[in-house]
Every structure is written in C-alpha cells, then in structure tokens.
Design brief:
- The complex is a heterodimer of chains A (22) and B (130).
- With 22 residues, chain A is low in regular secondary structure.
- In chain A, 0% of the residues lie in helices and 0% in strands.
- Chain A is rod-shaped and about 50 Å long.
- Chain B has 6 helices and 3 strands; from the N terminus they run αββααβααα.
- Chain B has a 3-stranded mixed sheet with strand order 2-1-3.
- In chain B, α2 (46-52) crosses α3 and α4 crosses α5 (101-110).
- The radius of gyration of chain B is 17 Å and the shape is globular.
- Chain B starts with 12 loop residues before the first helix and ends with a helix.
- The chains are: A little secondary structure (22), B mainly alpha (130).
- The A-B interface holds A 5, 7, 10, 12-16, 18 and B 50-54, 57, 89, 92-93, 95, 112-116, 119.
Chain lengths: 22, 130
C-alpha cells in the first residue's frame, strides 16, 4: 500500500534529562 | 477518607501542551530563533530546542545564547535529516524511512540526541534483517 505508515512505540526515554540545579 | 489531600492528574496534559506548542511553531507565535539548515530557514522555540537537544542545551543555556536569533549550522546536518527531528521534538513522532534514516541519524548525532540515535540504529539494523 502506498503511504502505509507502520508505527512502533518507543517506551524508553526520548530526550536528554536537564540536570537538576546542584 | 483520611487522605491528606487530593490530586487530579490530567494524563493527556503533556501531549496536549506539546500539541499547542507545535501549533504555535506552525503559526510563528513566540518562535525566537531561526535555524538555517542547508540554507533552509526553520523557525522554532529555543525552550523546546534546549529541552530536546544536548547540542542546543549547550548553546542556549549560557548568556551567549541570549542574543542569538538566527543560527546557521555550518557543516551541520542537512535539512532532510534535521526537519524530521524538529517535528519529533514537537510531536513525539519520528518519521523514518530507509532512504532518510542515515541523514536523520547524522543529524541526531550532531544535535546530541542520544535516545534518537539509538532508535535510528535499531531501525537501520532492522531494515537490513531478511
């Protein structure tokens, strides 16, 4: 099928974590 | 009975906020930086860029990043690798295809988005398996 998009779920962290103020 | 307090958690809130931010981006509302990627101007919010990318965090977190409102990325990613990452930042959905994955991987590496880099590697590995 043209244009069929398979979506895979990523459960893990997606982006960096900004360090908490020391 | 006996609870100290009650909290109503709106579980859709983070995705609803992101959806509104994306609408603001598409309409150019409060966008405070223009990224020149492969010569193509892309408007965005520094706050979203800094929240999603280690590279932009290191650029905009300091005072040096305050006055920057146009940023060209010389030797940086090409637009076809960068644009899907900008959409990902604002939608949580990363569009990949065998044709674009290498460019997205290169852009994610440049932007220090490690978790996306890993996802691109997994995608590329899977697309080679018979």
């Amino acid at each position: 099928h043209e244009g069929l998009v398979a979506t895979v779920k990523e459960a893990g962290r997606s982006i960096h974590e900004i360090p908490r103020e020391e | 009975e006996g609870a100290l307090g009650y909290v109503r958690e709106f579980t859709r809130h983070s995705s609803d906020v992101l959806g509104n931010l994306n609408e603001l981006r598409l309409r150019g509302i409060l966008t405070d930086v223009t990224l020149l990627v492969g010569g193509q101007p892309l408007r965005a919010h520094k706050a979203v860029l800094i929240a999603c990318s280690g590279f932009f965090y290191s650029i905009f977190r300091g005072r040096a990043g305050v006055g920057v409102d146009v940023l060209s990325l010389p030797g940086g990613p090409e637009a076809r690798g960068f644009a899907p990452l900008l959409d990902f930042m604002y939608t949580s959905r990363l569009r990949l295809s065998p044709a674009t994955a290498p460019a997205v991987l290169a852009a994610a590496t440049y932007l220090q988005m490690e978790h996306v880099v890993q996802a691109c590697h997994r995608f590329i590995q899977a697309s080679y398996e018979p």
